[in-house]
Each structure stands twice: as structure tokens, then as C-alpha cells.
Amino acid sequence: MQKELPSVEFLTNGQDYFLPSVSLDNVIFGFHENELKVLLLQPKLKKEWVLPGGFIFKDEEIDDAAARILKTRTGLNNIFLQQFRVFGGTKRSRGTVMRQLLQTTGTKITNNHWLLQRFITIGYYALVAYDKVNPHPDEFSNECAWWDINKIPELLFDHQQIVEEALQAMRLQLNYQPIGYNLLPKEFTLKNLQSIYETILGRKLDRSNFNRKILGYGILEKKEKQYSGGAHKAPFLYSFSKKTYFKALKNGLDKDF
Amino acid sequence: MQKELPSVEFLTNGQDYFLPSVSLDNVIFGFHENELKVLLLQPKLKKEWVLPGGFIFKDEEIDDAAARILKTRTGLNNIFLQQFRVFGGTKRSRGTVMRQLLQTTGTKITNNHWLLQRFITIGYYALVAYDKVNPHPDEFSNECAWWDINKIPELLFDHQQIVEEALQAMRLQLNYQPIGYNLLPKEFTLKNLQSIYETILGRKLDRSNFNRKILGYGILEKKEKQYSGGAHKAPFLYSFSKKTYFKALKNGLDKDF
Questions:
Q1: Strand pairing of B120-129 and B18-32?
Q2: What are phi and psi of A71, to 5 degrees?
Q3: Confidence band for B230, pLDDT divided at 50, 70 and 90
Q4: Does the beta-carbon distance from B88 to A176 stay under 8 Å?
């Protein structure tokens, strides 16, 4: 993994290290007590927030850059980051905001400063287990924190749109890829899994419909029922079938057509 | 729409016009007599083929660039191009191939020639009505032609991978977005629509399953049955409901969850 640049070098000579015109933004969703969170940074001296993003080294694969940036902000390794869209509006990265941000660092700002050029940004998202993350701000930010998806603060640039489209992409993804592997303990009930789907979709689901569909995908293994000892019927436990889960992640879930 | 550059200006001073580091490749699928075709170009003096692609003007939206490149190669306007992935491998655009291609044009080649730098490419795909297309090569190519998806020739760079991933993305898309609007006459039978799905998926589908699912999406309107006069039962005709079709294109098809 590439090392991050020292900040003075980053601010003054970034153009020597990074691919021009291209940035990358990670939308990191966290699942916590049936709530969906998103990880945001607050740049110094600003009241608005931004997504954790960065740039691609000239000899770095773009997926590796996304993973490096995720690790820097969260400490997380080996998370499956899903590239979902390029945001390429001509006006998305121009204007006075980046100039203001640069001013807070005391950088000498020329009109052709590399950070003032047009950037298209590649959006990635990941759904991570909230309590495994240790959010920490970089030196250009006050704070790095989780925000409830329904209560996010004002965001800079087009980052509000990027969050919305990441959420929409993740909701569509539920229809053709499995989800939940890194969010649940090894054994879980169908109700646990249904909660994840409900949290992402932001609405309640019919239980028998959900069970029928999810079992139909063939990605779950039913465990031997354990003696519960209680008066109530204990629910069956399941685990993900590693083989079929990752096959479905690659090829899509089985469909009627 | 931006005008294409004259070729000498393109080859020698392209860096003054285009966003650095970023190219764009269109995978144009054509539907014809229940076969799936893909539109390819053969560069001069090469036996291999490439996808129709290009670059993004410094003040051009990326979606507009995709549409401009599509129009230049096919004459088609108003086609919905679906951005599906960025290909960002560090070695994808390097090597000797671009240098050879440049040599065929007689361009003076320096080591820092803009076309010899690293490019990431944004992949778009579209599914178009084959017989509305008039393929024509640009001045750097011998030929622009449709190829059967199962018999495509050897491709340069990572274009084989781009075609494969476009096809996979289109197949996944069938599960959450409607398809077929620009491929069928105003009124059609369910069997006509099933043929499109079968062609994209490359396999036969069960008819009653297909009918149940496609009608369940609520994107079709049943037409009044017309007197057929024949001995056989005429099939019902349908048309797309413009309102629900484009809503589903935007928000995804209705699902059980």
C-alpha cells in the first residue's frame, strides 16, 4: 500500500505524485443497532462536512487508492469497496470552496494550483460494521464522525448527491447481490438478516416474503437446531455459505430470469 | 454539442483541449433478429479491433462526451448511455500499442506525448436498434462494423474485458431496470419482449415465468384485442407505459423487497 504524502508536500507538489483530473470519494455506510450511518469529515474552519476522499498516485490501481483512503480514515482493512459511479460535472470542483480550504492551510495559492483544477471523482461505497471502525480526522479536518443517514449535516461540493446516489446504488444492489457477510456474527437468525435489509431500504418488510426470497437465493446454510430449554420455540440459526455467497457476489443472485 | 477536433490538432495538441488522464469507451450493443451485436473499429494497419472511444473536452460534461462520441460513430442521437464502470489499471493504456498507432499517423512522437500517458477510462454502454445505425469509421480506422457478441475478433488494450463487463452489467440491469423501449415497435407481443431478454441473457426463458414477472413490474399496458380473422388465437398486444417505464428506469423496478 502506498504511503500518504506529508501535508506540505501534498499541498504544494501534489501534481507530481497524483493522476491529474481524477479524485475519489468513499461513502462509508455503517450498520449499528438497526440504524444506517455515514462517515463524514469536517474541514477546519468550515461548518459544512465532506466525504472522506483523496487522490490516486500515478502508479496506483484505482481500487487500491480507494482501499488506502478507507484505511487512513477508519483503520479498516479488507473491506469490499464497490465502485458505483463517476461524478463528472464541469462545475463540481470549481468555485471558491477549494480556495477557502487551501487558505486555511496557509498554502501559497496560484491560479493554476493543482487543487484548483477540474476534477472528476470516482464514487465508491462500502457497508461496514460500525463498531469495528475507529474514525479519525486527517490534519486538514476538525473531526471525523458517523452521522445518521436521515440527519446528515450540510455537505460541500456535490457530496450530498454522491451520498444519495451511493444509497440508491446500495438499495439496487440488494436485488442482485448478497449483503451482510461482514455485518453479522458467524451464526444468525433470518430476523437478524431482515433487519439489515430493512435498515438499508428504510422500510419494514414482510417476514414470510423475505424468508422465501432470501432462502431461494441458496446463500444460507441452516444450522442444527440447538436445544433452547425455554418455553418458546427458538428460531433456526443460519450462516452464509461462503462458496455460494461469494459466487453470487461475483455473478449476481439467481433470478427467475 | 462540442465539435470534433481536426486530426492534426488532435494528435499534436490534444493536451490543450482534453481533460488529462481520462478517456471514455462506449460499448454499443445492437439488437438484430434475435442476435446481440457489438460495434467495433479497426485501427489502420492493425489486425486487432477497438471500442469506439474518445476524450472529454476540458469544459464538457462526461455524459455529453459519451453522447458526442456515440453520435460521431453511429449518427445516433438521444440514446440513453449507461455509465457502468471505470477501468483504472496502471498498465492498461501503456506499452507499445499506442506508440504503434501514433506511428501510423506520421505524428512526431515524444516520450511525454499526451496519448502515451496513463489513462483511466470510463465505460458506458447502450443497447440500440441495429437498423437505425449507420456505422462509419473515423480517419484513423479502416472499418467500423457490427460483430456478433459470440464471435468478436481480437481486441486491443483491455477492451475485451470492457466488453465482457458491459455485457455482465447489462444482464444485471435486467433485474432492476426495464429495457426494450427503443428496440420494439409501439405495440408488441410479450413474446417479442421475451426475445430481447433471451438475446441479452444468451439463454431461453420459461414463458409463463417471464410473463408473470414482466407483467408484475407494471410497465406494460395491454391493448384492446383486435379481431384477427384467423383460426388461431391472436396474442395480446402491449405497449410500454411511458410514465411507469421511465419511473422504473430512474428508481428501479418494483420488487418483493
A1: parallel
A2: -65, -40
A3: low
A4: no
Tens of pLDDT, residues B33-92: 889 999 999 998 889 999 999 999 999 999 999 999 999 888 888 888 999 999 999 988
Q: CA B164, B169, B172 angle in degrees (round to 5)? A: 130
> Distance (Å, rounded) from C-alpha B200 to C-alpha B164?
12
What is the model's pTM? Answer: 0.91
Residues of B engaging A, defined by a Cβ cutoff of 8 Å: 19-22, 56, 58-63, 83, 85-86, 88-90, 118, 120, 122, 171-172, 174-176, 197, 201, 205-206, 209-210, 213, 252, 255-257
Of residues A92 and A244, the one with the higher pLDDT is A244
Alpha-carbon span A204 to A191, nearest angstrom: 12
Of A59, A118, A209, the CB nearest to B90: A59
For every residue of B11-51, DSSP letters joined together read HHHGGGTEEEEEEEEEEEEEEETTEEEEEEEEETT-SSBB-
Q: Quick check: B257 and A209 CB within 8 A?
A: yes
Contact between residue A214 and residue A190 where contact means Cβ atoms under 8 Å apart: yes
* Residue contact A89–B171, C-beta within 8 A: no
User: What's the pLDDT tens digit per position in B146-205?
Assistant: 999 999 999 999 999 999 999 999 998 888 889 988 889 899 999 999 999 999 999 999
- Condensed to tens digits (0 to 9), the pLDDT of residues B107-121 reads 888 888 999 999 999
Task: Provide the shortest C-alpha distance from residue A20 to chain B (in Å).
Answer: 6
Closest C-alpha among B143, B139, B159 to residue B4: B139
Quote the CA–CA distance of A224 and A212 in Å, as a whole number. 20
Nearest to B158 by CA among B103, B93, B255: B93
- Taking CA atoms, B114 is separated from A4, B93, B108, in Å, by 27, 12, 12
Of A166, A168, A88, A71, the closest CA to residue A124 belongs to A166
Q: What ipTM goes with this model?
A: 0.89
